[in-house]
Amino acid sequence: MNISPAPRKRVVLLGATGSIGESTLRVIAAHPDKLELVAVAARGNWEKLAAIASAHGVRHVGLFDEKAFAAARAHPAAFPAGTRLVGGLAGLVELAQLPAADIVLVAVVGTTGLEPALAALNAGKDLALASKEILVLAGQHVLAAAAKSGAKLLPVDSEHSAVFQCLEGNPHASVRRVTITASGGAFRDWPVDRLTTVTPADAVKHPNWSMGPKITVDSATLANKGLELIEAQCLFGLRPEQCTAVMHPQSIVHAIVEFTDGSMLAQLCPPSMTFPIQHALLHPARAPGVDAALDFRKLLTLDFRPLDEVRFPMLRLARETMTAGGGAPAVYNAANEVAVASFLAHQIPFLAIPRVVEHILGQLSRSAPADLPAILALDQEARRLAKSEIENRESRI
Ligand code: MG
């Protein structure tokens, strides 16, 4: 009998030049018989994007930043012959709906990926989602778009990939609790009073994962874990009290699902994003991984510690945000993005990040946006208020 091989999945990668993008390229390169890269996009690094497009023979290329788009257009020889270059948000949306694509991996920083993600789902493309802000901001809209078109929504964040894998084959009603793990970030062992002295240079050193500066600061404040709890609540249809986090310094166990009978399932793999990325891209198939698996012939110790909400106020604020619902997740995310950018620009101290977020959550506590334009307006309003709060703080110093 002549069995033809399964067709290759055609992948669009939005956010190709960042750390998730780099890991995704390694996964795709390792499985040339299963995956084909058909489009790439980045924010502004057009030279790196041109090198990626050339290495993978990709002829659909997008640049979000208009200046970078113009620079790239001025250097057509840097790209493979016949490249179609698109720019701005409209360009990313176009790539997300590319007829010659099966799955779109969205790994652009912040909320820029929201419209492309929705466009992919509306066009019936499976969506591998690495940008957690998208579900935090507009989770219900993303889930509704997936349900309507029948496209799959596949988490790329390591914790959500872990929950997804543990839940497969188990009825929703049998889930008691989902616990995601947190490495504790750069300052997990610092005394609380020393946190007043944290500089941007300290905060971008992560003990286990290599990531961009924004997400590394979010790991240090645990805002990252807060966003992930909100994301898990949405993605898996859980109540706020079913979503918890625990400190696990080794980042080997990524999530634990507890069932009503008290049994727990956990997912383990080394802290490399290639594992969840490959799971999302090949789902439901499995294939040899890019990085080595855990080796039990070597000593492996797994520690779990309760997380302290006094030390990590962003975690308490995330819990309050999940309970409040409505527009609170969008406000939490927007205020945090502004506060982190201000910290990285040396405008506010590290410990002011949660204070700014709490203040803006209080100011916008009654917001309940009815539709997507209202959510985007609330996102902008939260950013505006956070910026003005930070300016006022500076003038008080
Ligand atoms: Mg994560």
Descriptive tags:
single chain, 397 residues, alpha/beta, Rossmann fold, Rna Polymerase Sigma Factor, Chain: A, seven-stranded parallel beta sheet, 15 helices, 45% helix, globular, binds magnesium ion
Question: Would you spell out the secondary-structure blueprint of this structure?
Answer:
Layout: E1 9-14, H1 19-30, E2 35-42, H2 46-56, E3 60-63, H3 66-73, E4 84-87, H4 88-96, E5 103-106, H5 114-122, E6 126-129, H6 132-149, E7 153-155, H7 158-167, E8 175-182, H8 200-203, H9 213-221, H10 223-235, E9 243-247, E10 253-259, E11 264-268, H11 274-282, H12 313-324, H13 328-344, H14 352-363, H15 372-396
Parallel strand pairs: 1-2, 1-5, 2-3, 3-4, 5-6, 6-7, 8-9
Antiparallel strand pairs: 8-10, 10-11
Bound molecules: magnesium ion.
Task: Walk me through this protein's architecture.
The protein is α/β, with parallel strands linked by helices and 397 residues long. The protein folds into 3 domains: 9-156, NAD(P)-binding Rossmann-like Domain (Rossmann fold), CATH 3.40.50.720; 157-272 and 294-323, no CATH class; 325-397, Rna Polymerase Sigma Factor, Chain: A. The protein has helices at 19-30, 46-56, 66-73, 88-96, 114-122, 132-149, 158-167, 200-203, 213-221, 223-235, 274-282, 313-324, 328-344, 352-363, 372-396; strands at 9-14, 35-42, 60-63, 84-87, 103-106, 126-129, 153-155, 175-182, 243-247, 253-259, 264-268. Strands 4-3-2-1-5-6-7 form a 7-stranded parallel sheet, sandwiched between helices. Strands 9-8-10-11 form a 4-stranded mixed sheet, with helices on one face. Helix 3 links the parallel strand 3 (60-63) and strand 4 (84-87). Helix 6 (132-149) packs antiparallel against helix 13, helix 12 packs parallel to helix 14 (352-363) and helix 13 (328-344) crosses helix 15 (372-396). It starts with 8 loop residues before the first strand and ends with a helix. The chain binds magnesium ion (MG). Magnesium ion binds next to helix 7.
